[in-house]
Amino acid sequence: MRVEFLGTGTSNGVPFINCDCEVCASADLKDKRLRCSAMVKVAGKNILIDCGPDFRQQALRGKISKIDALLLTHEHFDHVGGIDDLRAFGKVRIYAESRVAGAIRQMFAYCFAKFKYPGIPDISLCEIDEQTFCADGVEIVPIRAYHHLLPLLGYRIGDFAYITDIKTIDSENKAKLQGLDVLVLGMLRYKEHLSHLSFDEAMALVDELKPKRTYFTHLSHDFGLHETEQAKLPENVFVAYDGLVIDC
Ligand SMILES: [Zn+2]
Ligand SMILES: [Zn+2]
Ligand SMILES: [Zn+2]
């Protein structure tokens, strides 16, 4: 399995518009973070996780030529705002839980209209719940977590799991995250936040789950420079960056 980080920034992206902090001003390409998304390549299939407003740029940079399934974590715009650009990929099947599917039908109502304009995205929604399902032959285990009060889904594929915008997770779902090779985990910054894991909270979860490797994503400019922060981390914990490709 190969995973490419298409975007690793929080909802603002990094740099944040009109911010001249050290991180936003950094010339290091690892400090330039598009909105959060990843492409999982497994068994010849391309499984996209989330499709934010930077998707067009990500698809061009990553030379994405096909999408076999799109898994949505939740309906916030930084995770779904690029769905219109799926028009380049023919028929795309989107997997989302019922509430998220409802939000997509509203946000992109023209894609579900009876009489469709030519050229609009050809998307179909598959409603999932917390049960394991197959996306084009690939087994996916949904992981329930909470974004403060909003329930969202992370996904486990083999020994890889991706969970972003999480603040809390219960013990039943933690049990589904045992024995991981790679955990991709949303971690915003050092300072606590209402609906995202802070650094200390994320590290406590990593200590509990003990994946072989952890990659932090959904980072804010408040977290710090990639190079400086990476140097402080244990040897199996990484600050992900846009364009990073990992095998697991
Ligand atoms: Zn987000
Ligand atoms: Zn900044
Ligand atoms: Zn969110």
Radius of gyration: 17 Å
Proportion of residues in helical segments: 10-25%
Largest sheet: 7 strands, mixed
| Sheet with most strands: strand arrangement | 6-5-4-3-2-1-14
How many structurally independent domains? Answer: 1
Which small-molecule species are bound to the chains here? zinc ion
Query: What is the CATH C-level name?
Result: Alpha Beta
Which regions contain 5 or more consecutive residues with pLDDT less than 50?
A: none
Q: Shape from CA axes?
A: globular
Identify the CATH homologous superfamily. Ribonuclease Z/Hydroxyacylglutathione hydrolase-like
Strand content: 25-35%
Average residue-wise pLDDT? 98
As for the CATH topology, it is: Metallo-beta-lactamase, Chain A
Which class of secondary structure composition applies to the elements? alpha/beta
Distance between the termini: 5 Å
SSE topology string:
EEEHEHEHEEEEEHEHEHEE
- Number of DSSP helical runs: 6
Short description:
The protein is an alpha/beta fold and 248 residues long. Helix content is 17%, strand content 30%.
What does it look like?
By secondary structure, this protein is α/β, with parallel strands linked by helices. The chain has one domain (2-247): Metallo-beta-lactamase, Chain A (4-Layer Sandwich), CATH 3.60.15.10. It is 17% helix and 30% strand. Helix 2 links the parallel strand 4 and strand 5. The protein is globular and about 55 Å long. The mean pLDDT is 98. The site of one zinc ion has 7 residues, from helix 2.
